[in-house]
Amino acid sequence: MKKKAQHMMGLPFVFIISLIIMAVIVIFAVMAIKNFTCRQEQITINLFVSDLRKSVEEAFYNAKGSQTIFEGTLPKGCSKIEFVCLGFPEEGFDRGWQRGLGIDDNKADDIEKEISFYKDTNYNFFFYPQKSLGTTGVSPVHNINSTGIPISLEKNPTCLSNKGKIELFLVNQGKNVLIKK
After folding, report:
1. Does pLDDT of 149 surpass 80?
2. pTM for the model
3. Which contacts qualify for 59-62: CB closer than 8 Å, 24 or more apart?
């Protein structure tokens, strides 16, 4: 009878250990699913940048005056990208570039500071905020005209709010491609 009582006393301990092990398994499963989702976003963002580069190149080789519409999608999950900006930090910024975006002057100044950080580089495409891409492993800055195709902007910088779908107009101006909203 004594052994049965000891066996009954050890049973709750086994249940507690089993519950702890199941909780650890569930936590790791949730982390793995989140990591998989973030990796999917990384691929989507990299494809967006690659597709934009290809569209700029195709627009350059189209007839002068022709207009191409670039449409791309950007995720809003792990990355938390608020704005996509094209700009030339070394040329200074146009006044009122933020009109129509619904952002205040403080956020506009913050965007300008982040872009200005790359003044002495050839980067001209920026995700804002840059720290938003920390978990995805994607670079927050890129060079859209890496093949040497000259581009110009309607406003410097040209920023678009990330609502999942980004639309840009690419106009062949003969010697360059004009990118505008």
Report:
1. yes
2. 0.77
3. 59/170, 59/171, 59/172, 59/177, 60/149, 60/172, 60/176, 60/177, 62/172
